[in-house]
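REQUEST FORM: STRUCTURE PREDICTION
Request ID: SP-0412
Submitted by: Lab K.M.
Chain count: 1
Length (residues): 218
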Amino acid sequence: MTLPTVLGGLCLCFLGFETKSRALDAIGIESDRAAHLGKWVVLLALVGWVLVVENRALASIGWRLAGTPVETVWWTLGTAVALLAANVVFAPLWARLPGDDAIRDGMGEFAGLSVSEKVAISITAGVTEEPLFRGYPIERIGEVTGFPILGALVGGLAFLVGHVGDVWSPAAAARMAQPTVVLTGVYLLTGSLPVVVAAHALNDVVGLLLAERYVDST
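STATUS: Completed
RESULT:
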């Protein structure tokens, strides 16, 4: 694995969503549906990069089970519970810090969506974001440097920065460090993208289904 090849893959991971957004803006497409579909295009581009350019299996970026299928399910459920529990445990702390309205304002953007739309958005987030910001960076930077934790830090930071935009403020993105730490820790322990993909999606589903409560609390 050559350094230029890895750098090319990292550019695709970290700049893919922004490039997609700019391309949609350039051609005048502003629908949320197109934005979410575009995330799948970026994911497919990464899959093509790994399979064709690097000539490697998807297992090389974490697409593998965490042991047996049963163990993978338990890891997924345990991670989802840990994410939800962390939200409850740290809620009082976040409430005392500046920017407490940040997450509420962002979640309010999803309040009017149907249940199917919220589920689709959650699945899209889990499936498209975890390979780009967790699997590929951790595996490839780990291979090049010998320190997977460096890939975890770089990918985690890129994930947080990438969420700053029209929906999420910098304060809201900073609060996403909480689930990022949990998901990164689980990936480092299991090396399994399916686990963190599913847990990420489940966590988002719960959050979006409760979006109306954020609006009602304003």
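NOTES: The longest helix spans residues 115-145.
Reviewed by: T.R.
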